[in-house]
Amino acid sequence: MYPYPPPYPYRPPSPPPPPKPKNPGTGLGIASMVLGIISLPFSWLILPAFLALIGLVLGAVGMARSKGAGMGNGMAAAGIVCGAVALLVGVGLAVACFVLAESFFEGFFGGYGDGYPDYWRELGALLCFA
Predict the structure, then answer these.
(1) What are phi and psi of 10, to 5 degrees?
(2) If 79 and its partner were Cys, which of 59, 103, 107, 114 is the partner (CB 3.0–4.6 Å)?
């Protein structure tokens, strides 16, 4: 077709580079980080405390899987930190709420031994989370 041969021989294309190894803990790290971030602003409620606890567990498992493969996982670490902070804030607020409810109803009703039933204590504790 062409009257002249090509000036140099064509070289076949080089093979594609080998794929990077996948980090086995990436999915768990993302889930941990999302649950930790979601539970942070709502840590004063009961349900996000469970989300923070689940996020802590997922982050620890994801971090262990990543370290087993010789890789790092910053998202799992962020999930562990956010979950721990949310859990500590939630537990601290729950303890403070129970203590304040106890002292409020103790002073308001003059003690529980004066004929007032003990369900006022539970009611005060529930009002803290409403």
Answers:
(1) -80, 140
(2) 59
